[in-house]
Amino acid sequence: MERLQKVIAEAGITSRRKAEELILKGKVRVNGHVVDELGTKVKGNDVVEVDGVMINKDIVKKYYLLNKPRGVISSVSDDKNRSTVRDYIDTDERIYPVGRLDYDTTGLIILTNDGELANLLMHPKNKIPKTYVAKIEGLLNKDDIDRLRSGIMVDGRKVYLENFKIRDKNFEKKTSIVEITIVEGRNHVVKKIFESLHHPVIRLSRIGIGFLGIGNLASGEYRELSIKEVKKLYSLK
Ligand code: URA
């Protein structure tokens, strides 16, 4: 027996919190009967419907790691017909990206139909480290580095860097390549960090999610995660 909201979240429909809202709104049926109270438990052979659609509780869980190219949106569809990360993965499963990379950001993104793992990776309390390499305008001075070390205010809240290093400096072009690791998931957070230092980001790439690196994935290539890697991701909780 499992809690109804967990079963819905695990089917990849939505988060557990949103599943609870759907239940309370009377949108969920179990064996044809509306269940609008939290705490209900269901068995493997109970038929669960969300908004009239039966969810398949026995879906095969799939996990992909994509090296997202530039000019691709982190979504499963786009009303402007731009290419999406979903277009790159050859599967019929209802997978979706875990979190977002900006349209012009390249690098690692996980796609899965496992709602529970997606929630775990995105929840701020799990502090999953993400490593980025950014090409930025200008050369960082001591003051900038001190600010990066002591945390940077972004939208009224401080972002602390887990790690930071300058990989390269181009004195002629006045640009730098920096690597930063953060546990933040806020939108555009890396660009905002460097904007607040007046060193705007020119190019950005995510090269690490937890222990996962790019390896030999070329731009636009993907691979399935191994069971061992999935287990290791679960253990990051
Ligand atoms: N931070 C950004 O600014 N953009 C991304 O795509 C990811 C993190």
Overall pLDDT: 92
Number of strands: 17
Structure class: alpha+beta
Helix and strand pattern: EHHEEEEEEEEHEHEEEEHEEEH
Based on the structure given, which CATH architecture of the largest domain is correct? 2-Layer Sandwich
CATH class of the largest domain: Alpha Beta
- How many distinct folded domains? 3
Radius of gyration: 20 Å
Tell me the major beta sheet: 9 strands, mixed
SSE layout and pairing:
Elements: E1 2-3, H1 4-10, H2 16-24, E2 28-30, E3 33-34, E4 41-42, E5 48-50, E6 53-54, E7 63-68, E8 96-97, E9 106-112, H3 115-122, E10 130-137, H4 142-150, E11 152-154, E12 157-159, E13 161-170, E14 175-182, H5 189-196, E15 201-209, E16 212-213, E17 222-224, H6 227-234
Helix pairs in contact: 1-2
Bound molecules: uracil.
Uracil is lined by residues 101-102, 105, 188-191, 204.
